[in-house]
Request: fold
Amino acid sequence: AQKITQTQPGMFVQEKEAVTLDCTYDTSDPSYGLFWYKQPSSGEMIFLIYQGSYDQQNATEGRYSLNFQKARKSANLVISASQLGDSAMYFCAMREALSSNQAGTALIFGKGTTLSVSS
Amino acid sequence: DTEVTQTPKHLVMGMTNKKSLKCEQHMGHRAMYWYKQKAKKPPELMFVYSYEKLSINESVPSRFSPECPNSSLLNLHLHALQPEDSALYLCASSQVYQNSPLHFGNGTRLTVT
Reply:
């Protein structure tokens, strides 16, 4: 079984600063993908960024980037120039095969990190 | 705006009631999911439908009954729930291929009294 570990229950950052949210994973599959989601207090889960295990470059999406270190099995999310609206819970996730067919996969989430951005 | 629509947004039900949660997507996705989320915890997988067939049931109690009438709709029928079933229920959809992201609805906040 795959496993996602987020060791930071809470992180605090000031506006305009960069912040790194940690994620380590464990899998024996050579092909895998890692996802980051943001969940504000309103509850919706917002997809932020994806990194494939065979991707040559670290993924970037606007202010979000992934520091992907395959040998260390880590996929840390970097948020640059933090904004007040970035305050939310952030989840790292990985697809796990839960049945014998490829269609039987789903995202399994880490415990999450609560990010608080102050002015 | 989310492309996965869940109704109702909030639901309060007694332990003897029968209710249904509804989820709809029009992105052409052939995989749909139900997750349950307690406060300050990660979402926990309940069910996965792939091509309108149930492919994963994560040992969910029978008081939760999923249904996928067509490729755009997903229902979760609730009956004889317990107070500990109070949670945020999230629906999601995705392409079937392995590394496609899940797109979530805004969820239904369920309270069982």
Summary: Chain B is about 0% helix and 55% strand. The mean pLDDT of chain B is 93.
